[in-house]
């Protein structure tokens, strides 16, 4: 369930979202997790744009409410932790928990 404050923000974003959709011709919509971005991701997907969601690094085991709401409309979902990727197999691992990020640390440890 969405909290009253979050619900008000999402509802308030819809008019701006419609105005943006008429004026903008972006190819990709990227969100870093703000709840107010959910309507933009939904509308963008409905208009045929690619959508990307980068989950917060603080989300280790579960997706944020924003990510769960937008999930059906997201083309790419990036997470920072292997535990979260294990729960959401379509997510791609980036950042601190990825093997690419850990490789230099392993070299230093040798």
Features:
single chain; 110 residues; alpha/beta; Rossmann fold; 4-stranded parallel sheet; 5 helices; disordered C terminus
Structure description:
By secondary structure, the chain is of the alpha/beta class. It has a single domain, classed as Rossmann fold (3-Layer(aba) Sandwich), CATH 3.40.50.2000. It contains five helices and four strands, in the order αβαβαβαβα. It has helices spanning 4-23, 38-46, 65-70, 82-87, 99-109; strands at residues 28-31, 50-54, 76-79, 92-93. Strands 1-2-3-4 form a four-stranded parallel β-sheet. Helix 1 runs parallel beside helix 2. The protein is globular, with a radius of gyration of 16 Å.
In whole angstroms, the N-to-C terminal distance is 48 Å
CATH superfamily: Glycogen Phosphorylase B
What value does the Rg take, in angstroms?
16 Å
Taken as a percent bin, the fraction of beta residues is 5-15%
| Spatial strand order of the main sheet | 1-2-3-4
Mean pLDDT: 79
CATH topology: Rossmann fold
Give the low-confidence spans: 104-110
- CATH C-level class: Alpha Beta
Assembly type of the shown chains? single chain
Instruction: Give the overall silhouette.
Output: globular
Number of strands: 4
Q: Fraction of residues in helices?
A: 40-55%
Q: Which structural category do the helix and sheet elements fall into? A: alpha/beta
| Name of the CATH architecture | 3-Layer(aba) Sandwich
SSE sequence, one letter per element: HEHEHEHEH
Number of helices: 5
Largest sheet at a glance? Answer: 4 strands, parallel
């Amino acid at each position: 369930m969405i909290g009253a404050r979050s619900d008000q923000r999402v509802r308030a974003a819809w008019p701006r979202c419609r105005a943006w959709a008429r004026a903008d011709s972006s190819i990709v919509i990227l969100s870093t997790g703000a709840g107010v971005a959910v309507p933009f991701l939904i509308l963008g997907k409905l208009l045929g744009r690619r959508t990307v969601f980068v989950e917060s690094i603080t989300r280790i085991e579960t997706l944020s409410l924003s990510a769960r709401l937008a999930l059906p409309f997201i083309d790419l979902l990036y997470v920072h932790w292997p535990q979260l990727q294990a729960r959401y197999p379509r997510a791609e691992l980036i950042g601190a928990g990825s093997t690419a990020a850990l490789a230099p640390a392993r070299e230093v440890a040798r």
